[in-house]
Specification:
Strand order of the largest sheet: 3-2-1-6-5-4
Low-confidence stretches: 253-259
CATH architecture of the largest domain: 2-Layer Sandwich
Mean pLDDT: 87
Structural class: alpha+beta
Order of helices and strands: HHEEEHEHEEHHHHEEHHH
Shape: elongated
CATH class of the largest domain: Alpha Beta
CATH superfamily of the largest domain: GAF domain
Oligomer: single chain
Distance between the termini: 41 Å
Length: 274
């Protein structure tokens, strides 16, 4: 390995693949992780908190709080001076009261120049398969430590972040092939149905609100009906078709948790069909 790069975890190949499966390197979605950064900053009382994912070569910034200049999706190399890269090597946090005087990091360029953060707390975000996909890192301009209670609380924060990453990966498992299979069942119900009708039906299956004017054919076919606010909802016949199309899978149920995420996912699914 290049001596200028940070060391990689022993399961790096599988770990990096798991990161890619989340789909967040290319589409970071900072809004769904922002609350965790805010919470970690509040718990630790550090100046900043940031969440990043690490693919095979780069660190990708997802969300942060307390930083004047931050842009989600920014990437930089996992080199030997990238402290957060070392957090991936263990399931326990990397804690430093003072980076400048730490025996391991006192020769870091920023420590030697007396610039950059001093207090540091880096927590791995470990998924259900025990892969450290990313890090939740807190920094402080002055030396600072965490007590056991705060460490425990931040660990709980990272557990919730890991669960959300697993959900993101499960969403991606709804492949174009599965979409095509569902489309075949849908059009078997009514050959005149278009892709727009199919998309509307998927949105209804994900509990997204759509106006009745978006799909007159679905109403005429008895698959959905308008409520008092003129939004569509599935009828009994529509729910049965939903089951036949296997849209009650675990990933489809989970995308109901976030309307924007569900709509983005459906758009991504359709991109593979067009």
């Amino acid at each position: 390995m290049n001596e200028n790069l940070a060391p990689r975890p022993f399961n790096e190949e599988q770990r990096a693949k798991a990161v890619v499966k989340t789909g967040l390197i290319d589409a970071p979605k900072p809004e769904i992780f922002q609350v965790y950064c805010d919470l970690a900053k509040t718990i630790t009382e550090f100046a900043t908190a940031s969440f990043s994912l690490f693919d095979g070569d780069m660190e990708c910034a997802i969300s942060a709080t307390g930083k004047d200049e931050f842009e989600s999706g920014t990437q930089w190399e996992r080199d030997k001076n990238n402290i957060c890269s070392y957090v991936l090597l263990d399931t326990e946090p990397l804690l430093m009261h003072d980076v400048w005087s730490d025996q391991t990091w006192k020769n870091h360029p920023k420590a030697m120049n007396k610039t950059g953060a001093r207090g540091y707390a880096g927590f791995p975000v470990v998924n259900k398969d025990n892969y450290a996909l990313g890090t939740l890192c807190m920094t402080n301009p002055e030396p600072k430590s965490l007590d056991e209670e705060k460490i425990s609380l931040v660990k709980k924060v990272t557990e919730n972040m890991a669960l959300l990453l697993d959900v993101q990966a499960e969403q991606k498992e709804i492949t174009s092939q599965k979409v095509l299979e569902a489309l075949a069942v849908f059009q078997g119900k009514e050959a005149a149905f278009s892709l727009d009708d199919f998309k509307s039906f998927l949105m209804l299956s994900a509990d997204l609100k759509i106006e009745s004017k978006m799909s007159v054919k679905l109403i005429d076919s008895g698959l959905c009906e308008a409520d008092h606010k003129n939004f569509l909802r599935l009828t009994k016949e529509g729910r049965q078709l939903q089951i036949n199309m296997k849209l009650e899978s675990k990933p489809m149920r989970k995308i109901k948790l976030s309307g924007d995420a569900a709509e983005n996912l459906i758009d991504e699914m359709f991109a593979s069909l067009n």
